[in-house]
Amino acid sequence: MSKGRIIGLISGKGGVGKTSLTVNLGVSLSDFGNEVTIVDADFAASNLGVYLGRYDHPVKIQEVLQGDAEPESAIFRHPTGIKGIVSSNEIDFVEPDISNLREVLETAAEQSDYVLVDCPPGLNSTVENIMMSVDELMIVTMPTQTSGVNAAQIIEKAKELRQPVLGTVVNKVSGDPEIELIDREIEMMTESHILHQIPHDHTMRKSLFESEPLVKHEPLAEAALEIKELAASVGGHEYQRPRFAKLKRKLGNLSGNLN
Ligand SMILES: Nc1ncnc2c1ncn2[C@@H]1O[C@H](COP(=O)(O)OP(=O)(O)O)[C@@H](O)[C@H]1O
Ligand SMILES: [Mg+2]
Predict the structure, then answer these.
(1) How far apart are CA 111 and CA 109, in angstroms?
(2) Are the CB atoms for 35 and 112 separated by under 8 Å?
(3) d(CA 101, CA 147)
(4) Does the beta carbon of 223 sit less than 6 angstroms from any atom of ligand 1?
(5) Do residues 213 and 231 touch, judged by C-beta distance below 8 A?
(6) Bridge-based pairing state of the strands 5-10 and 165-173
(7) Ligand 1 pocket residue status of 11, Cβ below 6 Å
(8) Residue 58 near ligand 1, beta carbon < 6 Å
């Protein structure tokens, strides 16, 4: 297997949906037949394991970064088919020395088509170093002024660091131009193109509560369908959106209510 693509999902602002997207994009790429490893690099607020169903693995990324464990021992196979590396959120581990991060990601990439890195919010030297450890960046934002400004800062930094930007994913879109930025405004603000829009979808929170990635928990949910489409375009896969998804969803809800 040739070395996989190492993609950092990054936003500047927290709470925009990076971790949700890392997990669901990873599972979707895996469903298209790719070997995918997702990596928690949000050391101060690591929650990738929670999104994977409180998935715990004894070897955390910090031990590998410190040189106390081999990268392979931190990689586990999740029931969805993807592989993962989780992070410890113990107070002593929130600021690890990340000088080995690139090496760890490259080891994961040797056995993967994609390595998706869940990056921390903010813009500081740790975030900058993480940005330098990946091959390309996928910007995640929401259609709000604040997240747009933070996304623009990240993109400016990426240009300064000469790190390639794949484009911007706009998440939690409700489609009301009165209260939301529209695509053109986001593109002008961030000077990057929009890869995809993902609607605000309450099933995303529900899937987190039920500890299962949305694309598995409710594959017909609107956000799940859009993430699959995004995965298809990132990976160059053919994807036919299921017909009558809305109707099937309604029927599913109805039978759920009757049970
Ligand atoms: N498309 C969406 N629609 C509705 N809620 C979403 C969507 N994407 C993410 N969320 C919710 O937003 C919250 C923050 O998401 P998270 O992935 O943890 O963001 P980040 O990693 O950027 O901090 C979670 O409660 C998640 O369920
Ligand atoms: Mg997160």
Answers:
(1) 5
(2) yes
(3) 27
(4) yes
(5) no
(6) unpaired
(7) yes
(8) no
CA angle 147, 148, 153 (to 5 degrees): 95
CA distance 31 to 6: 18
The structure tokens 């002593």 sit at: 92
- Classify strands 76-77 and 83-85 as parallel, antiparallel or unpaired: antiparallel
Number of DSSP helices (H) and strands (E) in the chain, helices first: 12, 8
Please count the structural domains in the chain. 1
Tell me which ligand sits closest to the C-alpha of residue 211.
1
**CATH number reported for the structural domain that contains residue 66 in this entry:** 3.40.50.300
pLDDT digits (tens, 9 = 90+) for 73-96: 999 999 999 999 999 988 888 889
Distance in Å, CA 190 to ligand 1 centroid: 21
Mutate to test the pocket of ligand 1, among 144, 198, 205 (most ligand atoms within 8 A of CB): 205
Helix (H, G, I), strand (E, B) or coil at 148: helix
Any atom of ligand 1 within 6 Å of the Cβ of 15: yes
This prediction has a pTM of 0.95
**Cα-Cα end-to-end distance for the chain:** 47
Structure-derived torsion over alpha carbons of residues 75, 135, 117, 97, reported in degrees to the nearest 10 = 80
204 Cβ closer than 6 Å to some ligand 1 atom? yes
Choose among 194, 116, 105: nearest CA to 151. Answer: 194
Taking a C-beta distance cutoff of 8 angstroms, is the pair 117, 155 a contact?
no
Residue 115 neighbours by CB distance under 10 Å: 29
Q: Give the integer Cα–Cα distance in Å for 195 and 143.
A: 14
Range of the domain at 235: 5-258
Span 17-62, pLDDT tens digits: 999 999 999 999 999 999 999 999 999 999 999 999 888 899 999 9
